[in-house]
């Protein structure tokens, strides 16, 4: 069964215990609160429109980062987390450009930089435990479990507290669905989340574009070869004429007639 995390912003008090627990689990310094995900914090909490908004990797059901990575450094595990293998990474940063949630970060300040992001504590999940941020939350704003069960719980909360919640579970369908589900009392667009992603997995669009690459390469290659041949031919002709002219001068012959 695919696991997921449900984050209910109406229950978050901005204590940053999730951030600190994440930092401790991943040995990230400095050990202080963070408002946005970065190379020093895989999750962040920031107050927007009166709501404490936590941000982390959304762990897409069909992750775009994995679809664009040319070396397979990203993959979606059967349990739900989208994990990253830094040993495979070549630093192309396609994942950063492709992520619809603007999550991955790059270690610009180190000699051998890599990409960083939340991995949903995949090792703990594999061991039957919950992510560190869920374990640390004192108000139950974060829950972890079967994705379908959490979707049912989220929808039940909306039905029973219609005046409290926006009638939408963010991540249920966005970009094909995610393993991090969000509830809020404020529209998600107002909180900075994209609302134009639709319900289609983005890798389908990625592959539609990439499938055209062989044709583009073939046509582009033929065009470039043609340009190279013409340019190179002109160079050869000019060199031959210069050689002939040098031979005439050396033999004391008159210069060729302009009409030759």
Describe the structure.
The chain folds into two domains: 199 residues, Alpha-Beta Plaits, CATH 3.30.70.20; 49 residues. Helix content is 35%, strand content 13%. The protein has eight helices and nine strands. A hairpin with a 5-residue loop joins strand 4 and strand 5. The longest helix is centred in the C-terminal third of the chain and has 39 residues. It is elongated and about 105 Å long. It starts with a strand and ends in a 9-residue tail after the last helix.
Approximate shape: elongated
Based on secondary structure, the structural category is alpha+beta
Strand runs, count: 9
- The CATH topology annotation of the largest domain reads as Alpha-Beta Plaits
Distance between the termini: 83 Å
Spatial extent as radius of gyration = 28 Å
Helix content: 25-40%
Helix-strand pattern:
EHEEHEEHEEHHEHEHH
CATH C-level label of the largest domain:
Alpha Beta
Just name the CATH architecture of the largest domain.
2-Layer Sandwich
- Strand % is 5-15%
Number of domains: 2
Strand order of the largest sheet: 8-1-9
Spans where pLDDT lies below 50 across 5 or more residues: none
Average pLDDT confidence is: 87
Regarding quaternary structure, how should these chains be classified? single chain
Biggest β-sheet strands, sense, barrel: 3 strands, mixed
> How many H/I helices?
8
